[in-house]
């Protein structure tokens, strides 16, 4: 059947086309818009006792969320970092990490579950059809949006159901405290630890390879040797922390090749000692060019002139390598005469 055979009143209008839907008057048309099914009321809509039960359930979830957050904070403070527990089927695991993850997950889950249960059982579930409209809203549409918002706020019963409102606000207000407490995981403030190392007056320079103290005659001209302070052993609990600051390289130059007066004064018979920690991002310097007296950091190619105060001659490093003042003790061993006079490693904002 062609469109000429359809009565004019049953033909789709231009307005129908504009709305993207065409519904013919023919009731036998299988493509006709069926419309919305009849609304089915929930038990909470017709039974206030059921609504009260849902309200108490939502409030319970929000309250348990608050308890979960409090449990997170208590666990963070009370459980030792190195404590281990057995959890089936995981096996042995860190008690602190497991408890923090469990309490934080439960707290966040209950906030979401409470909000979902609230929406499904107490907020309005009446289906509303709204026609498409231009992006630029008219004053009438804006007024309708505000009216719908006010209606939604009213139907949410946020003002009337104070138990839900107060417990929800409590859960949402308390939950961020978990993040605040986690800031403590960054560790204690460094204090003056960045400004001092294990080096001090009288500490012998110990060869990192042989673990023996060094004499001047053990260091040949042009050689590079890595040393550590006397008393620092690899099996020490704080070895990695301390060697990261106290690692030193010693190089023997001809005294006439040393350009910097302080470097010459702080050396012994051409033997100079500098921090091994690059002043860019803290990589260990390990490459030395004998002919030019240049030390190279392998990470980002910062280059230091060890014959001229270890100043930076290339690369992103921000300042020269700190020099360790050395001498020889009464037994003929190389020793430190003090700690570094400036912090080793990369710059930091409090550095003077």
From TrEMBL:
First and last residue of the signal peptide: none
Segments traversing the membrane: 58-79, 99-119, 168-187
Q: Which InterPro entries match?
A: QcrA_N, Rieske_2Fe-2S, Rieske_2Fe-2S_sf, Rieske_Fe-S_prot
Q: Where is this region: Disordered?
A: 1-41
User: One matching Pfam family, short form?
Assistant: Rieske
Family annotation (CDD domains): Rieske
Name the source's superkingdom: Bacteria
Membrane topology note:
Multi-pass membrane protein
Protein name (Swiss-Prot/TrEMBL): Cytochrome bc1 complex Rieske iron-sulfur subunit
């Amino acid at each position: 059947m062609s469109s000429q055979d359809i009565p004019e009143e049953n033909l789709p209008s231009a307005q129908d086309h504009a709305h993207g839907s065409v519904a013919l008057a023919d009731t036998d048309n299988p493509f006709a818009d069926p419309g919305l099914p009849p609304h089915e009321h929930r038990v909470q809509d017709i039974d206030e006792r059921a609504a009260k039960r849902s309200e108490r359930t939502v409030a319970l979830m929000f309250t348990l969320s608050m308890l979960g957050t409090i449990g997170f904070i208590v666990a963070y403070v009370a459980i030792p970092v190195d404590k281990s527990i057995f959890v089936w089927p995981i096996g042995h695991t860190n008690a602190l990490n497991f408890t923090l993850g469990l309490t934080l997950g439960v707290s966040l889950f209950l906030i979401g579950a409470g909000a979902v249960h609230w929406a499904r059982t107490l907020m309005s579930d009446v289906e509303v059809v709204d026609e498409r409209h231009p992006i630029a809203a008219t004053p009438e549409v804006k007024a309708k949006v505000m009216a719908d918002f006010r209606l939604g706020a009213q139907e949410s019963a946020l003002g009337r159901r104070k138990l839900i409102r107060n417990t929800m606000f409590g859960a949402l207000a308390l939950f961020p405290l978990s993040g605040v407490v986690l800031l403590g995981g960054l560790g204690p403030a460094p204090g003056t630890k960045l400004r001092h190392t294990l080096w001090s007056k009288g500490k012998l320079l110990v060869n990192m390879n042989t673990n023996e103290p060094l004499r001047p005659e053990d260091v040949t001209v042009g050689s590079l040797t890595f040393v550590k302070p006397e008393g620092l052993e690899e099996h020490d609990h704080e070895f990695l922390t301390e060697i990261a600051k106290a690692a030193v390289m010693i190089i023997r130059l001809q005294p006439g090749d040393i350009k910097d007066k302080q470097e010459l004064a702080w050396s012994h018979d051409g033997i100079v000692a500098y921090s091994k920690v690059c002043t860019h991002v803290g990589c260990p310097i390990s490459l030395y060019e004998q002919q030019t007296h240049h030390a190279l950091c392998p990470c980002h190619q910062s280059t230091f002139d060890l014959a001229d105060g270890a100043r930076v001659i290339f690369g992103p490093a921000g300042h020269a390598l700190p020099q360790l003042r050395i001498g020889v003790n009464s037994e003929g061993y190389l020793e430190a005469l003090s700690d570094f006079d400036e912090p080793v490693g990369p710059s930091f904002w409090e550095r003077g």
